[in-house]
Amino acid sequence: MDKIRIAIVDDEKLIREGLKIILSSYEDIDVIDMGENGLDALKICKSHEIDLVLMDIRMPLCDGVEGTRLIKNEFPNTKVLILTTFRDIEYIQEALKNGASGYLLKDSSYDLIYEGIKAAVIGNVVIHPDIALDLLNHNSSNPDLNKILKEYKLTEKEYDIIKLIAEGFSNKEIGEKLFLSEGTIKNNVSSILSKLDLRDRTQIAVFAYKNHLIK
Question: Is 80 exceeded by the pLDDT of residue 132?
């Protein structure tokens, strides 16, 4: 069984060490290294083959938002999962824009963090339910769905796929829900990325939340 190679980055040593002990107890997780800020995270990625960086967002010298940008610029295939106590919407949105695969709270259960790591590594978007609610409530305006679909030339099927991506479903799961093949979903996702001029599924989720397409 191939292990998921992760780095843990947090400016509090006790949290780093605690996460390492707990996550190392899972058979398919290998904690490769640890750091104190975003610059450390980048150095670790340069020194080791890392599948995912589990990173705090507010840290001295280089925070998680900037750290995410640095990592994704040089290592686009390395996933970044934000883990923090803060529910700052602006930080959340910026981290996701920079390519983070999701955002979990530190008071999440270890099993939830573990499942979040596994989901992020295979390309799913991971957002804690409380964070998702915050994102939805950030702007109280009601979207004009038809206007959004027309502006971006999105079909209703593509709209349904966007919503399901934002809710964290994989292509296979979306196909099952919409009674379509996984290949058809992949083709539609590619079309959505092209129409919205976005880079990946995470940015599709950000688009959905910013435009309040999730209810």
Answer: no
Dmax of the chain from CA atoms? 51
Check if the beta carbon of residue 128 is closer than 8 Å to that of residue 172. Answer: no
pLDDT at 140 over 50: no
State both tokens at 170. 């994989």
Q: Is 8 helix (H, G, I), strand (E, B) or coil?
A: strand
For 62, other C-beta atoms within 10 Å of its C-beta total: 19
Alpha helices in the chain (DSSP H): 13-24, 38-47, 64-74, 89-97, 110-121, 129-137, 145-152, 156-166, 171-178, 182-196, 201-210
Quote the pLDDT of residue 157.
87
The CATH class of the 145-210 domain is mainly alpha
Query: What CATH number labels 4-128?
Result: 3.40.50.2300
Where exactly are the structural domains of the chain? 4-128, 145-210
Between the alpha carbon of residue 90 and those of residues 10, 65, 152, 165, the distances in Å are 20, 10, 25, 21
What confidence tens digit (pLDDT) does each residue in 44-86 have?
A: 999 999 999 999 988 888 999 999 999 999 999 999 999 887 6
The whole-angstrom distance between residue 67's C-alpha and the CA centroid of its chain comes to: 14
CA distances (Å), origin 33, targets 40, 53, 115, 119: 10, 10, 20, 21
Of 191, 187, 192, the closest CA to residue 206 belongs to 192
The separation between CA 209 and the C-alpha centre of its own chain, rounded to angstroms, equals 13
pLDDT of amino acid 66: 93
